[in-house]
Amino acid sequence: MEVRFEKVVKKYGDFTAVKGLDLTIQKGALHFLLGPSGCGKTTTLRMLAGLESVTKGKLLFSGKDVTKEPAASRGIGMVFQNYALWPHMTVRQNIEYGLKIKKTPAPEIEKRIKEVLEITQLGRFDKRLPGQLSGGQQQRVALARALVIRPNVLLLDEPLSNLDAKLRLEMRDNITRIHRETGLTTLYVTHDQKEALSMGTHITVMHGGDEIQTGTPRDLYLNPRTPFLAGFIGETNLVEGTYQGIEDGLHLIETSAGMIRAANCQGEFIGGDKVCLSIRPESIKIELGRESVPRENPLKIRLKQVTYLGDQEQMEFTYGNGEGILKVNIFNAPEHGLEEGKETTCFILPSKIIVLPQDQLLGPGT
Predict the structure, then answer these.
(1) Which of 52, 53, 240, 351 is the most buried (most CB within 10 A)?
(2) Between β-strands 312-319 and 264-265, what pairing exists: parallel, antiparallel or unpaired?
(3) Buried b (16+ CB within 10 A) or exposed e, 13-51
(4) What is the per-residue DSSP string for 314-363?
(5) Same structural domain for residues 175 and 315?
(6) Domain annotation covers residue 114
(7) Claim: this prediction has a pTM higher than 0.70
(8) pLDDT tens digit string along 299-308?
(9) Do 293 and 188 share a structural domain?
(10) Residue 366 — pLDDT band, cuts 50, 70, 90?
(11) Rounded to an integer, what distance in angstroms lies between the CA atom of residue 37 and that of residue 364?
(12) Owning domain of residue 246
């Protein structure tokens, strides 16, 4: 089922939590709402579920206006952050509860229970109580309970935030697999960029009640339109500079590190405009050992610190007058002998640099 937000506004008195949201969630998508705390993502989810009223605008399910319909008639399955399982009921009883409330015939209940126990891989736990399950198993019970009613849309509200790191990784795989098997249109709210990038078919980034940008994970990572988005999706270096013009098809930007040439530009600028460059840490190359690197955009940098992580080294350099910071990620780094305080040269391909307009959203939103 396709879900459409048409100029949706949500106000609480004088405060506007969601500001004219225009968004389409494609049929069968695993669509993420991503953003810092207070950006409006959970309010958006709750309006879709019918748990919050819409101040202005429309909600459409495959073209049908459901803005005024009560939550019970929307066909929504929802998984909450805290699971909300009945502690005195077994796994099976928790899952079938909604079907019994709807007075679904017993043979149909049995058929659906069997289906969701198989999909969520909970068959051998169906007689256990929630207190006898791990956090990941409890989360799968909550997911099975939402799936068993065969919803039109599945809503997931920060479902992995209460799990430890290992279980979060396991549940990411489980949710992705279940989405692939069911094909349900799913809206997933999170503040975790890695969850969104690794699982989503589409991501909408929100800030201060506004939609910042929507696209596939790859598109948002490679083609952010603002410095805020570039810094929020993954990690990036944001280097301020002054736009100089175009030479040989490349954009020239004067920075405190020197002149930088970039191939990608989000917006139209004239000489003298203040701009911001997005440069991913993995795009910056340093000659280490015998490995040769493209020698474009040479910049003099000084090593500030190194963090060794086994498969990679995260280096932090200063540039210009020493106040600018440049982060560099080097994977499978050889022995290089770089010491803190030592000066070296880095190189950046113009195709790996994006010229962006400066904005006011570089800090965490509230």
Answers:
(1) 52
(2) unpaired
(3) eeebbbbebebebeebbbbbbbbbebbbbbbbbbbbbbe
(4) EEEEEETTTTEEEEEEEETPPP----TT-EEEEEE-GGGEEEEE--S--S
(5) no
(6) yes
(7) yes
(8) 999 999 988 8
(9) no
(10) very low
(11) 8
(12) 235-356
